[in-house]
């Protein structure tokens, strides 16, 4: 499988390399995505984008962005943060009070 799985968590769009995804399941109103060595939580799965152009984060972004990311892309006219599945951002984890 190639490309990127694009998902939504809150108002933000996130992308993870499809090759890193090894399980996708729905848990109630949420989705659990097993990628890399961890689990990601999503509100919605938007699809697989086979041709995302990923641009590295600029110094200006990394100065204010507290999480690790592989870059930025555009999907359906909206910005996507492309993540490193080995170091997923906290925003893609369960929030306090949420259950799996």
Structure in words:
The protein has 1 helix and 8 strands; from the N terminus they run ββββββαββ. With 100 residues, the chain is mainly beta. The mean pLDDT is 89.
Q: How are the elements arranged and paired?
A:
Elements (H helix, E strand, L loop, with lengths): L3 E6 L2 E6 L3 E7 L2 E6 L2 E5 L1 E6 L9 H6 L6 E5 L2 E5 L18
Q: What would a concise description of this structure say?
A:
By secondary structure, this protein is mainly β.
End-to-end separation in angstroms reads: 27 Å
Overall mean confidence score, pLDDT: 89
Shape: globular
Which percent bin holds the helix content? under 10%
Treating each run of at least 4 consecutive H or I residues as one helix, how many helices?
Answer: 1
Widest beta sheet: strand line-up: 6-1-2-8-7
Can you write the helix and strand succession as a string? Answer: EEEEEEHEE
Radius of gyration, whole Å: 13 Å
The total of beta strands comes to 8
Largest sheet: 5 strands, mixed
Strand content: over 45%
Provide the domain count.
Answer: 1
Query: Which residues sit in consecutive blocks of at least 5 with pLDDT less than 50?
Result: none
Structural classification: mainly beta
Features:
100 residues, mainly beta, 5-stranded mixed β-sheet, 3-stranded antiparallel β-sheet, 1 helix, 8 strands, 46% strand
């Amino acid at each position: 499988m190639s490309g990127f799985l694009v998902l939504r968590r809150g108002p933000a769009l996130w992308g993870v390399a499809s090759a890193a995804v090894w399980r996708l399941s729905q848990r109630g109103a949420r989705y659990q995505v097993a990628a890399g060595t961890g689990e990601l939580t999503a509100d919605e799965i938007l699809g697989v984008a086979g041709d995302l152009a990923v641009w590295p984060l600029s110094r200006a972004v990394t100065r204010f962005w507290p999480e690790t990311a592989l870059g930025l892309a555009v999907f359906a006219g909206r910005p996507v943060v492309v993540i490193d599945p080995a170091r997923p951002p906290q925003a893609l984890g369960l929030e306090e009070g949420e259950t799996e």
